[in-house]
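User: Could you write out the 3D structure of this protein bound to guanosine-5'-monophosphate? I've included everything you need below.
Assistant: Certainly. Input first, then the structure.
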Amino acid sequence: MDCLFCKIAAKEIPAEIAFENERVVAFADINPQAPTHLQIIPREHIASTLEVEPARRELIGELVEVAAELARERGISDEGYRLVFNTGGAAGQSVYHIHLHLLGGRSFGWPPG
Ligand code: 5GP
Ligand code: ZN
């Protein structure tokens, strides 16, 4: 499949890997929007949150768990951090392989832009 994040997960395209196991890969965003900006993805190709279904609940939950663990490791869990799933064009999704943004190391506005 011609998918950028599948290729990163398969190490066909290099990325700075922060964590990986059999199901999940986390890597540094190429264009970071905060001092910490990681992408947490499943190895399985899932296009967006619209494809989350009962059989995938545990996997999607693991993305959140890995994000929290990475936030602790990087010392941003106490101050707080932001997790984002952009879904579709209006939200600015540009890569159609589901990814959880972990952003931290600065303050964030609300509502988002
Ligand atoms: P989206 O806009 O789909 O929510 O987020 C896609 C993210 O992927 C963006 O933050 C963008 O900077 C990041 N990204 C796009 N291409 C690459 C790449 O080749 N390598 C890495 N590490 N990140 C990428
Ligand atoms: Zn993919």
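The two ends are 32 Å apart (CA to CA).
User: Perfect, thank you.
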